[in-house]
Design a protein that fits this description.
Strands 1-2 form a two-stranded parallel sheet. The protein has helices at residues 9-24, 32-40, 46-53, 58-71, 86-106, 118-126, 135-139, 144-158; strands spanning 29-30, 83-84. The protein has one domain: Clp, N-terminal domain (Double Clp-N motif). The chain is mostly helical.
């Protein structure tokens, strides 16, 4: 994955977890649901902080997403090398777009390069341009505009 170098440590761990989950479920590719579960496995990460600011318990969301991912599993044997579905790739690209927007916004106060955080991964999953259909996130009240607003509000506090 060419975006690997742009991922924060938590985001890198989320993607690694997503691959492991897909493999455990016998999937032939990493889907957006796996990425979402990978994010939620990173307790205390930036995405968790955003969700908590929204009044959403990430543990509840994780349980519901796990149920949805298992329902969509093909139950087969995963290949040694798991690729990302086209939709998951699009979500990752949208996360990169979000990270670059934040980096441009923060450049007024910092020379920090664009880094894809777990919150950017979350935004990539729910971006109107991502094509992922993660109803479970919407059911819990996770919406693109609100996530972005909270991320912009809390990142200056965190010196991200």
């Amino acid at each position: 994955m060419e975006l690997w170098q742009q991922l924060s440590d938590d985001a890198r761990q989320a993607v690694t977890t997503a691959r492991s989950l897909a493999r455990e479920q016998g999937c032939n590719a990493v889907a957006p649901e796996h990425i979402a579960l990978g994010i939620l496995a990173q307790q205390g990460c930036l995405a968790w902080q955003v969700l908590e600011e929204m009044g959403i318990d990430p543990r509840d969301l994780h349980a519901d997403l796990t149920d949805a991912a298992v329902r969509h599993s093909n139950g087969g044997v995963a290949p040694d090398k798991l690729d990302f579905t086209t939709t998951a790739q699009r979500c990752m690209q949208m996360a990169w777009v979000e990270a670059r927007k934040d980096a441009a916004r923060l450049r007024a106060t910092s020379e920090q390069a664009a880094v894809i955080s777990t919150a950017h991964l979350l935004m990539g999953l729910i971006s109107p341009a991502s094509t992922a259909d993660l109803r479970t996130l919407r059911t819990h009240g996770v919406f693109y505009g609100e996530v972005g607003e909270i991320l912009r509000r809390i990142t200056p506090r965190l010196n991200v």
